[in-house]
Amino acid sequence: MRELKHQHKFIIFSELFQFIKNSIVPLIIFLISIGSKIPPKYGGDYTEGIVIIAFFVIVSALAIFKWKRNVYNVQEDGMYMKYGIFEIHERTVPFSQVHTADISSSLIQRLFNVCKLEIDTAGGDAKSEISIFLSKQEALRIKSIIFKVEKNENQDEIIEEKNIKKLTSSLKDLFVMATFSTRILAGFFIILAFYSKIDDILPKKFKEKAQGYTDNIIKGVKGVNIIKYVVTLIIIMLFVSWVISIGLTIIKYYKFTVIREDDNIKLSYGLFNKKEVTIPLKRIQSLIIVEGVIKKPLGYFSLNVETIGYGKDKGESTMICPIAKKIVLDKFFVDILPEMNITYNLEKSPRKALKGFIVFRLVPELIVMFLVGYFAPYGYYIFLLLPILIILHYIRFSDNGLYCGDEFIVMRYRKLARETVIIQKECIQSIEKTQNLFQKNKAIAKCRVTIAGDILGSSYTVGYMNEDFIKEHVEVRK
Q1: What is the pLDDT of residue 322?
Q2: Domain spans of the chain?
Q3: Which pLDDT score, from 0 to 100, does residue 299 have?
Q4: How many angstroms separate the CA atoms of 282 and 270, rounded?
Q5: Predicted TM-score (pTM) of this structure
Q6: In terms of C-beta density within 10 A (0-12 exposed, 13-18 middle, 19 or more buried), how is residue 203 classed?
Q7: Per-residue pLDDT for 342 more than 70?
């Protein structure tokens, strides 16, 4: 006989909020449509109040009823769920199929000592197989059963144990990450968009006074000074975007900590919305070392992993190190992921492929340049970018590399950032070699490796490699 337990009562407030959020617009429309149709003698003057009270009574009753019907049971081999109001669902998830069990808690949830436990398995969709509200202690207990972690009396201080190894991103690292983030440009364009809407928001009298003040300032100002003012305005907007980027980055990745405990990698981060994630080591299929255009010269990198049943939260969940100095990489492999601490020498793209590599990428860019140079005033200045593009393509070509060992394949390529991918061979679904007519004459080819995934899997490609190397070391030994 199963001993069924209820979720934390916080779910009542959560469901109540969801009901109100989803129903507020229809409710307002309903109030507007019936308010004037009921005569005063039948209570027309109190229609709005009666409807609102009835609405809150009904949604509160539904939320409480849902909490009462939403129960679970945890055993050593799996988790049973029973839920639903009008239609009852029963689900059993074997722990042997669980790939991740994530704990997250917002600022409000932490005040009530409650968190959300999300359990995912392979083949799941964007929604977690199990998502429930529990006390922090109960969520940690269930995670310890799933991943067979030994019980610790003080789970919150588990990172202090001597047999636990961890890495933490400092505020300085997050500051650097925010400084070179694309969020700065995104914030810049958001500010521009907001600025363009000011004309529709401000009162007419205020706009007239502001226009007169601006005209008095600009009157008599030379063209050079106007350019200075515009440049100053752009700098101010970029500075505001930079400040916003720093704030968002610190809020999201505050105290980002990576912990290796037994056969699991644990992540914890977040200021207001704190997340705790556990990745079983056996689920990791590949490790990606990302070195940005600006971050690489400064000695910084970030780390991502690909796993089955994970990475559903807008891609952010695959990141196991948002940013760190290059010297930390060796420590990461020794302390956190020694199973992927391998030595390799990459086979580089042959020099005979350089000309084709650059020409193939320059053709579409030259077409755009000719169109801009022909139609745009002073557009011919765009050809000054040509040497820069050639250098960038040469760097991309130089970064190409491929290695195949007994247990791992290593691929290196550059899009904008340089990425080095370490792939476990047992996780590979397919290896594909492709080449066009020109590449066939030069005996070069493109190597594409696909690993298992929730739907289509993930693929990595290195182009313009020696065809004989792919045949001998990759295709034959896969």
Answers
A1: 84
A2: 1-69, 179-252, 344-478
A3: 80
A4: 26
A5: 0.69
A6: exposed
A7: yes
